[in-house]
Amino acid sequence: MANLQSLFIYALKSSSFFSNINWDEIEKATGQTLTMLGFSVLFTVIIGFILGFILFLTSPHQILQQRFVYAILSFIVNLFRSVPFVILLLVVLPVTKALVGTVLGVKGSIPPLVIAAAPFFARLVESALREVDRGVIEAAQSMGASNWTIITRVLFRESRIGLIAAITMTAVTLVSYTAMSGIVGGGGLGDLAIRYGHYRYQLDVLIVSVILLVILVQLLQMAGDYLVKYFSRKRL
């Protein structure tokens, strides 16, 4: 993915319209965006999986039904999902500072990205698990399968196509979040587009930044679609 974007940058260097662009900064910003995206997707998927499975398992009529736990966790997830990301960036600045020691750059962008995306992904995980046929779960219970076996061998296996689609959707959403993190000096292509494209009215920088973000989103979506089709064929 990074190599494809580097080739794209190299091809653009020959265009006179882009002659004033600092290509080293473009490459650096692209690397920062990929770093932010990689770490935020990793932590979001880990935390979101845990939250999503707990939400599903403790919801009414499920194998670990706990209405109070579900109500509290559901409220917290909905609370974070309802806050616009730009506002959340500012609200969690003290938390970010405490966790990573800075609120600027790539390092300072990852905590708010995860805090914003994990609840969103958790709801997608819960929705994917609800698509699993109830009869399959009951059949596993009737054969004496433990809760852990049902979670790992039934729920996870039967919902993996929906989970892959959820990861893809979350990764695409995080691309836009990384761009917005540039408002508070988060680094990456979003920061470059704001500092040069918006404040300094350098349209060429803005265009290149947007094009690279679009390419990144397309590659993520294509990869996710391929995996969904692959695992769909394996089920047939």
Number of domains: 1
Unreliable sequence segments: none
**What is the terminal separation in angstroms?**
30 Å
How large a portion of the residues is in β-strands, by DSSP E? under 5%
Topology order in helix (H) and strand (E) letters:
HHHHHHHHHHH
Radius of gyration: 21 Å
By helix and strand content, what is the structural category?
mainly alpha
Examine the coordinates and then state which fold CATH places here, giving the name of the CATH topology.
MetI-like fold
Fraction of residues in helices?
over 70%
**What is the C-level CATH assignment?**
Mainly Alpha
Description:
This protein has 11 helices and no strands. It is an all-alpha fold. It has a single domain, classed as MetI-like (MetI-like fold, Orthogonal Bundle). Helix 2 crosses helix 10, helix 9 runs antiparallel to helix 11 and helix 10 packs antiparallel against helix 11. The model has no long low-confidence stretch (mean pLDDT 84).
Brief account:
The chain is mainly alpha-helical and 236 residues long. It has helices at 2-12, 23-58, 67-82, 85-91, 93-100, 105-130, 134-142, 147-158, 160-180, 188-198, 203-235. The protein contains 11 helices and no strands.
Topology:
Layout: H1 2-12, H2 23-58, H3 67-82, H4 85-91, H5 93-100, H6 105-130, H7 134-142, H8 147-158, H9 160-180, H10 188-198, H11 203-235
Key traits:
236 residues, mainly alpha, 11 helices, 81% helix
